[in-house]
Amino acid sequence: MTIDLQRFSKERTFIEDIFKGKKKQVEIGGWVHNTRTLGKIRFLILRDMTGLVQITAVREKVSEEIFHVMSNLSKESVIYVKGSVQDSKKAPGGKEIIPKEIIVLNEAKDLPIDVSDFSKTELPKRLDYRFLDLHRKRTQAIFRIQSTIATSFREYFIKKNFIEFQPPSIIGSSSEGGTELFSAKYFEKNAYLAQSPQLYKQMVACSMERVMTITPVWRAEKHNTIRHLNESRQMDIELAFADAMIVMKEMTEVVKYIVREVLNKNKKELDLLGIKLKIPKAKYITFTETVELLKKHKVHVGKDDLTPEAEKKLDEIFPDTILFVHDWPLSGKPFYIMPKDANADAKLSEGFDAIYKGMEISSGGQRVHLPDLLIKRLKAKGLNPKDFKGYVDSFRFGAPPHAGWSIGLERLTTLIVGEKNIREACMFPRDRDRLTP
Ligand code: ATP
Ligand code: MG
Q1: Residue 134 backbone phi and psi in degrees, to 5
Q2: Which of the ends of the chain has fewer CB neighbours closer than 10 A, N or C?
Q3: Does ligand 1 lie within 6 Å of residue 416's CB atom?
Q4: Residue 177 scores a pLDDT above 70
Q5: Which residue numbers are catalytic?
Q6: 160 lines ligand 1 (CB under 6 A)
Q7: Is the dihedral of CA 417, 363, 309, 298 positive or negative?
Q8: For the chain, how many helices (H) and strands (E)?
Q9: What is the rounded distance in angstroms from the CA atom of residue 20 to the CA atom of residue 301?
Q10: DSSP string for residues in 157-215
Q11: What are the C-alpha distances in Å from 424 to residues 128, 148, 266?
Q12: Between β-strands 281-286 and 321-326, what pairing exists: parallel, antiparallel or unpaired?
């Protein structure tokens, strides 16, 4: 049996409105969340995108047919219900529905994973059936929060007069150097999937000044870790006439804005996940100071990078803080990061990392906008300037100083929702072993 969807979309009441409103007769649709039998009563909890409501059928008070359907419904089946709203002290939320009509729109049978709130199914199995895992309120909560994160990022910068641009995903040569590229056939040529929108966002900032994008990137890193994906999304900005400090301050403001928006819009989801979020503070510290500090805490630090242990320790020392570690050693940053004071022999750079909740959420800095210096930096990194000719030449015809950064969307989501594995914060993760669904 089916229903007239055009009529239903006009008449439908969303479940949360049952509790807010005074409507007595409702038509609702959703998934069978749970069922329970108590003597001659059948209880059903129905779920839609807004909440849960109990449907109660007492044998003598409903038709034979409805009682039969209610007795045989399996979890996650999709049903349409027409009924009356009744106050009930025992029902969750204080209201229940007495059904007059139930239509089964799709029956779900033999669920391969446990979709209850306290599912014991392990992550890999859940990911094999991600479409069904998305029925879980917990999973939905994570992606509702992710939606707020991405939307708030966009909102914040659009309000500040940035334009959103769309970089290419297929590129003709490596954007950053290195071997972590997926290659693809492009007619007669070899092409690659973009590792980052880096070079493109610089070109756009050098004409349009304030630009941002949320874009997928691909990295053929072979290792399988809980903080890396092979396909992820980046939230990037690039700003003309800016240095590292200017863009670090922008990040402080946007991350605060994002957290504030999540607190405002996702209270239900945060409660469900048991997360207590605080609007972060910001702290700016040099790489050298960071190394000194970590030594005091007996934590090992790389020569020009921070280890995951170091990032964890920094969160213990500075909780609820976006920690900007700047004046990063030049050797630890890509060729396009400006040496300190535009000095080709500098040991330090205008690059930084931002650490939040024990993990790097972003890298950024001022870029090299001077072609000769850029060629020196490419050579210093063992790269061939010829391979980057188009990129270098783009700075020959009026390129202002500029700076920017990139925040990993799944990385930030993982930290905000308090998960450990980044796959929890990616709807359809691509990792070393996973290419489906
Ligand atoms: P890490 O040191 O954590 O491996 P990175 O320095 O290689 O990261 P960047 O090139 O600086 O990464 O990318 C910018 C941001 O994108 C990172 O700060 C992180 O939030 C996110 N990111 C980077 N690589 C990945 C990945 N493989 N999967 C998911 N997110 C990533
Ligand atoms: Mg980085």
Answers
A1: -70, -10
A2: N
A3: no
A4: no
A5: 219, 221, 227-228, 360, 363, 411
A6: no
A7: negative
A8: 14, 16
A9: 55
A10: HHHTT-EE----SEESS-SS-SS---EEEETTEEEEE-S-SHHHHHHHHHHHSEEEEEE
A11: 13, 16, 17
A12: parallel
Positive or negative: CA dihedral 128, 134, 136, 139: positive
At residue 175, the pLDDT reads 64
Q: Which amino acid is at 193?
A: L
Structure tokens at 156: 């914040």
Report whether residue 363 contacts ligand 1, using a CB cutoff of 6 Å. Answer: yes
Residue identifier of the C-alpha nearest atom 4 of ligand 1: 228
**Tens-place pLDDT, residues 361-406:** 999 999 999 999 999 999 999 999 998 999 999 999 999 999 999 9
Of ligand 1's listed atoms, the one at least distance from the Cα of 305 is 2
Q: Atom 8, ligand 1: which residue's CA is nearest?
A: 360
Of 15, 73, 24, 11, the closest CA to residue 47 belongs to 15
Locate 51 and state its tokens: 């909440």
Q: Which two tokens stand for residue 428?
A: 């359809």
Query: What residues does the ion ligand 2 have nearby, CB within 5 Å?
Result: 363
How many Cβ atoms sit within 10 Å of the Cβ of residue 133? 22
Q: How many Cβ atoms from other residues are within 10 Å of residue 369's Cβ? A: 21
DSSP secondary structure letter of residue 435: -
Strands ordered across the beta sheet of 170-171: 170-171, 189-193, 183-186
Using CA atoms, how far apart are residues 324 and 362, in angstroms rounded to an integer?
A: 9
